[in-house]
Amino acid sequence: MNIESMLNKIRKQLHEASYKLTPQREATVLVLLENEKDHLSAEEIYMLVKQKSPEIGLATVYRTLEMLTDLKVVDKLSFNDGLARYDLRKEGAKHFHHHLLCLECGSIEEVEEDLLLDVEEIVEQRYLFLVKDHRLTFHGVCNACQQKLKNNQNAQ
């Protein structure tokens, strides 16, 4: 799906929730769409929005991100750097997708498969708890860093 069709889909979601896609909101959404894989912080989003629309303030970007989070257009994440990061929710996704966080280089890879459906079912049955969503981040070492570590050990 291209950026324009994704933007139209988000415009429709906002309209259904009685919000308008103002130029300020659109600039923020475009930055999210253009940097979909980057898991940007609010400050990083703001710096990129500022390049497109210098008149937009940080508070506007924060308010837009909170509104998009409330509408489940984006998910707010927290990794080991202490920053809130934002990730577009995939179209048709019932649940939030999972992540692989490399403790060496800080890279974040997405896992699209929903690995927790069985766990969710057990939780609902055993604890009589209606699960609405779940999040899972694996903390470890990515393949590239494993290779670097292995090469460094072999060189010694």
Describe the fold and architecture.
- This protein is of the alpha+beta class and 156 residues long.
- It folds into 2 domains: 1-92, Arc Repressor Mutant, subunit A (Orthogonal Bundle); 94-156, Ferric-uptake regulator, C-terminal dimerisarion domain (Dna Ligase, domain 1, 2-Layer Sandwich).
- Helices cover 47% and strands 16% of the residues.
- It has 6 helices and 6 strands.
- It has helices at residues 3-16, 23-34, 42-52, 58-70, 117-127, 143-155; strands spanning 40-41, 74-78, 84-88, 98-102, 108-111, 137-140.
- The strands form 2 sheets. A 3-stranded antiparallel beta sheet has the order 1-3-2. It has a 3-stranded mixed beta sheet with strand order 5-4-6, with no helix packed on it.
- Strand 2 and strand 3 (84-88) form a beta hairpin.
- Helix 3 (42-52) packs across helix 4.
- The longest helix is centred in the N-terminal third of the chain and has 14 residues, at 3-16.
- It is globular and about 55 Å long.
- The N and C termini lie far apart (48 Å).
- The mean pLDDT is 88.
Task: Lay out the secondary structure.
Elements: H1 3-16, H2 23-34, E1 40-41, H3 42-52, H4 58-70, E2 74-78, E3 84-88, E4 98-102, E5 108-111, H5 117-127, E6 137-140, H6 143-155
Parallel strand pairs: 4-6
Antiparallel strand pairs: 1-3, 2-3, 4-5
Helix pairs in contact: 1-2, 2-3, 3-4
